[in-house]
Amino acid sequence: MKQSSRRNFIAQSALAGLGTLIALPSLAANIGSENTLANPFSSPIKTGFDQQPLPYAYNALEPLIDTLTMDIHYNKHAAAYSKNVKEAAQAESVDITKPLEDVLSNVSKYSVKMRNNAGGHYNHEMFWKLLSADATTQPDATLLAAINTSFGSLDELKKQFNTAATGRFGSGWAWLILTADKKLAVTSTPNQDNPLMDIAEKKGFPLMGLDVWEHAYYLKYQNRRADYIAAYWKLLNWKTVSERFNSI
Ligand SMILES: [Fe+2]
Fold first, then answer.
1. Domain of 112?
2. How many angstroms does the Cα of residue 102 sit away from the middle of ligand 1?
3. Separation of 216 CA from ligand 1 center, angstroms?
């Protein structure tokens, strides 16, 4: 989080704690100068349309994520989302040199093919980076403070996230997001939707997401989604989550 944004966050958290919605003049000036009201989810972290290399070997997350699942997930499922979103972009005159985020925030204006594959591509590009065999196991101090403000504790965040992930009926994702009013929240979306989409029930900038499609875990975990979710926490690289939080 940029220094001025961090000041905003702390100030807004303090105001929220007082049950007050007034904005201090200096706070309003800071928000205006960064244009965060016009585009509250703006982040320098952008996603292109091409699939980026997997940041580790297929077997790197063994035994928690098995090699075959990683291979099929990356090379078949995720690769198809990238291929198909580029097809949709060509058919619908979208400039693929621009960030994918521009499409997501206006996804209701495009086809179902675009919605499914733009979401699928964005979600997976983020997902790979969230996992690591050599993960940083705790949020940084700034993010931890925000978690404590929004949830009371890291354990409570995990509890709410697990409920969202286990409760998602069928295929979809669980998310930790930063909302437009700079609060953290847990949500979940169906299929390949995500919280950046204008059609999302609960909108925000995704800090972390968990793929609960069966293609992500069925070979190893079968129906035991809860065991897969437990594995996710062991592999979650809080460094990536903290960087995403600090980018806003
Ligand atoms: Fe997936």
1. 64-248
2. 22
3. 5
